[in-house]
Amino acid sequence: MKQFSLLLIGMVFLIAGCSSIVIKPVFQTKEREEPVDYQVPYAVFPDNLLFLGLGDSLTVGVGDELKQDGYIGRVKQQLLQSEQIDEIDLINTAKRGRRSDQLMTLLSSGGLDKEIQEASHIYLSIGGNDVMKIIKRDLFSLQLEAFEEERENYETRYFHILHYIRDLNPQAPIIALGLYNPFSLITVESEEVESIITDWNTTMERQLMEFEGTCYVPVQDLFYTNANLVYHTDFFHPNAKGYELIANRMIRTMESCGFVEETNGELYVKGGESE
């Protein structure tokens, strides 16, 4: 890890937007509850669907030079091609640099309760900046143990985030984006970080399985290399092509999760109308 740390120095100082302020979560601990039976209703002729974006820069769409709202905007456009859908509104509350503890604090303030309650679909990306916090803090002395300790904290926070959303909105599908490792571009020694990202993704997927109506979207394999020119010029965020790949993967995964059906080339969306 020592040699890898030195190779990361230049990269870390190019990455903007990661807040250095630590915000302690104020959630009260809740015991885990057995998930209730969940059935995704069909939105046959909806007047309107409401997509809610939660999380960090990936849901913001940072790096999208075409300014099409990243993956969430592209998913919206693909689904709008269906004759079933009249209109899709998008409320994107994601913020560049946001960590899971900061998202917990935002949710616990009640500031997004109305949006969560009214959403027909919820898109979530969170965790990348949690990893970056460790890299920035321990840049010259990275240890796997630090990532493992933070992963355990992240697991608890991620569960509470999902629990909070589900308490407010039992029906809306939650589509959660996995993490990827951008450091594969600068050194082959990033295999250690690749292993860390895999562990965090496994944690994320495990927590999502605790709740009905959730869908984990893996993207780690899409960003192993930049052979397909999928990175923005900051070599950290996806570019327009990268977001297109994420959106296509998301549509296919939503189909596997039962949130979207394709019949005769037409996409049909499962999920309730926005209130």
From TrEMBL:
This is GDSL family lipase. It holds the Pfam family Lipase_GDSL_2. Residues 54-245 form the SGNH hydrolase-type esterase domain. It comes from Chryseomicrobium excrementi. One of its GO terms (molecular function) is phosphatidylcholine lysophospholipase activity. Gene3D superfamilies: SGNH hydrolase.
